[in-house]
Write a structure and sequence with these properties.
The chain is an alpha+beta fold and 433 residues long. It folds into two domains: 91 residues, OB fold (Dihydrolipoamide Acetyltransferase, E2P); 307 residues, BirA Bifunctional Protein, domain 2 (2-Layer Sandwich). Helix content is 31%, strand content 25%. An eight-stranded mixed sheet has the order 6-9-10-17-16-15-12-11. It has a five-stranded mixed barrel with strand order 1-2-3-5-4. Strands 7-8 form a two-stranded antiparallel ribbon. Helix 5 packs across helix 8 and helix 5 crosses helix 15. The longest helix is centred in the first third of the chain and has 23 residues.
Length: 433
């Protein structure tokens, strides 16, 4: 009969009996009589004690165990307050599955070295905790949209038109075709689908060729986007706020241990669930920056990272900043009826200096205004005929937003760099491993 192997956490939960587990050596130490191996799996850690009196004939094999060797172990689990997780296993039998020698990951290594060895650094407790929280975030996004009547919908990754601007596009060799790009956003191919499904969402990779080396930018990132028909600008803001509250709530429910490993102060996250977000216009934001932060910004210029950081340090919940100048925003954003120099667009700025995590807008549904905006940005409207057709045949008020999943993970985990919010980060300087 095959041995029934259980997770370390399940073994801890049942305690006081014979258990069989498998995992990897996280730490090892010992003497000539006892060997203490901290074994890890995806669920937890546990100390395993090898007694030479039990394994005299196999002691040489045990004594040579090194960090990251993989083992199967059977033994008696018991409570021990001195052990790292409060329990230990007295080993009765074991099998070495995969040997490990001189594992290169240790303490106090450079960021560059860890990046070069990312495939091994993923095994660290820090990265394991982040990846678990990341999984919760993805699941919560999917759950939120499905619970609210959205259909999952997918746009192509290869696209023939640009959404956010030519300087940020990755061109690709597509047989003998020119002007084919990796997707910056699903949006131009998503809007046609609202006339069929009305409420749609996706979680998919997006690509931005931004020559940026900041702690907030990736060239390949995961984009949670939504688009909805028959909505007003306020509906887009409300949906984004409810989504973020739902995501943070799920992480607080499911990932307390992971947040503890990351030394994340959960009191910084609790207001997100309990309090309404702060809402202000771009113009109001400039006044606050000038009065409270001594940072004058000329009206008409987009907010830089440093200005977003200063603004968010003033509040313990995200800021929804609206009505940006039309000239700094995309062609598809709708002019504000009260002030045509601004658009009904919004950015969600995360607290503690984490900056923009959502960008959204009410979409312009006036055909001629869209054509004029395209021309003003140096684009030929003929290249967007399929998109313009959505305004020719039964156009309705609609809007949507895009959420940078890694930026949300960075904020929730309290990370210094977005590079730790994704398993294998891609930046302008790194495309491997």
């Amino acid at each position: 009969m095959a041995t029934n192997y259980i997770s370390i956490q399940d073994a801890i939960n049942q305690a006081s009996k014979t258990v069989s587990i498998h995992g990897w050596v996280h730490r090892e130490r010992g003497s000539n009589k006892l060997k203490f191996v901290t074994l890890r799996d995806s669920s937890n850690l546990i100390q395993c004690v090898f007694d030479r009196a039990v394994f005299e004939k196999r002691w040489d094999e045990i004594d040579k165990l090194q960090v990251e060797a993989s083992l199967r172990i059977t033994g008696e689990i018991k409570k021990d307050e001195r052990a790292l997780t409060g329990y230990e296993i007295q080993v009765k039998d074991f099998e070495v599955i995969g040997k490990s020698e001189n594992f290169p990951i240790a303490k106090d290594l450079s960021i560059e070295f860890l990046a070069d060895n990312r495939h091994l650094w993923l095994r660290s407790r820090k990265m394991t905790a982040i990846l678990k929280i990341r999984s919760t975030v993805f699941g919560a996004i999917d759950e939120f949209f499905r619970q609210n009547g959205f259909y999952e919908y997918h746009s192509p990754i290869f696209q023939a038109v640009q959404c956010e601007g030519g300087s940020d596009l990755f061109s690709v060799n597509y047989f003998d075709q020119k002007d084919v790009f990796l997707s910056q956003s699903w949006q131009l191919y998503a809007e046609p689908a609202i006339f069929s499904l009305e409420k749609i969402y996706t979680i998919a990779p997006s690509f931005r060729a931004e020559p940026s080396k900041t702690s907030r930018h990736l060239t390949e990132y995961w984009h949670a986007e939504m688009e909805v028909a028959w909505c007003e600008f306020k509906d887009i803001q409300d949906c984004g706020e409810k989504l973020l509250k739902h995501v943070v709530k799920k992480v607080l429910e499911k990932n307390k241990e992971e947040l503890k490993i990351l030394e994340r102060d959960i009191s910084k996250l609790e207001p997100i669930v309990k309090k309404p977000f702060v809402r202000m216009t771009y113009t109001e934001a400039l006044k606050i920056l000038k009065d409270k932060c001594k940072m004058p910004v000329e009206w008409g210029k987009d907010l830089r990272t440093i200005e977003e950081e200063k603004l968010t340090m003033l509040y313990d919940v995200p800021i929804i900043c609206t009505n940006y100048p039309k000239k700094v925003k995309a062609f598809y954003m709708m002019e504000d009826p009260q002030n045509p120099d601004t658009v009904q667009g919004c950015d969600f700025l995360a607290p503690e200096g984490h900056g923009e995590i959502i960008g959204g807008s009410q979409r312009e549904h006036d055909l001629e205004k869209i054509k004029n905006r395209l021309r003003a940005q140096g684009e030929n409207p003929k290249h967007y005929e399929f998109y313009l057709d959505t305004r020719r045949y039964g156009s309705v008020p609609h809007g949507g937003f895009g959420l940078g999943v890694e930026r949300v993970v960075k904020w929730i985990c309290g990370l210094e760099s977005i590079k730790d919010a994704i398993p294998f980060p891609r930046t302008m300087e790194r495309y491997k491993p």
